[in-house]
Amino acid sequence: MSTKGYSSRTNFRPASNGSGEKAEEPLYVNIRELGSGSFGQVQLAYNRQTGEKVAIKLLQRGPDKVTKNVERELRSHISFCHPHVVRFKNLFLTETHLAVVLEYVDGGDLFGYCSGKGPLPEDEARRFFQQLVIGIDYCHKMGVVNRDVKLENALLDASHTLLKITDFGYAKTSNDSNCMSLVGTPGYAAPEVVSAARKQYDGTKADMWSCGVMLYVMLFHSYPFERADDPPGQKGYAKVLARTLRVDYRIPSKPQVSKDCVALISKLLVADPQGRLSTEGVMKDPWFRKNLPPGVEHLNEQCLRMKMGTEEQAQKEEWIRRKVEEAMTLPGMGSGRQGSGGSARSKSGAMTFDESFEAAYKDEGLR
Description:
The chain is an alpha+beta fold.
């Protein structure tokens, strides 16, 4: 996605209201680019009034750039108020972009952290995993499934002790249609998600499979369904897909991890979603509960009590709908049309229905 016009120290000037009046003074000033997510590039900025640093996702305006999927992500994210979920802060339009203002988390993502450290000690992996599952449990209780749980979507604070879930680009709420789409990231997607049958599936259980993959990667510094001798490209992807469907993974002999930890992984990487642990099941597991900070068990209850009322939620969702609808047009374009919904592979490597998926099945003779 282009962020042309937003170089360092550029102001995020709001779009004109078309009345000829002078545009309001920009609230945010850009600092630098942070990276890219599933649907846009992210800039670090600061709030001129408070001095607070924020992360701003920039989506280029226009019917082919801003789609109903964007509205769905924002509706999923707007009501969250939890220490392990990145906070939504604001939404505004510039002449060229829809800008989504989020809490800034300054320690990088868990993928980068693990890449630099190698296999994490079991206690450290447990601490991150506890926060991940508690955050996912909160999302599920709020009626939202993430569908793209992975190391890259877990941000850390500067001390590398606090984890926050981010990027709800593939999220669905209980008000949306049922989960049937092939979405997520290869290596993290559950068997029912990548199955050729393409039947309706339980998004909460698909999230738990991905949590199991994340725990495995933190502990062993490798992906459970990849092998060192896999061929590159499409053929390698086909191998991963086939092993995922067979739940064909191994527990390395080194580094050694406890039997309780291996047992928990085996209860998450289960082919049948009905037999896979839910967040509640994981939170009762003895390995998970070890060294659990005091009071954490009641954290989600406290956060859920802060949930906004139905009327306020409806008002915010309508505000988002109008902003997204306006963002589907460029100034002077007239009324926008709905975008395609995004059927191509995203820049983050996430997958949707595409030719490579079909080819992978043919390569492994799975059709």
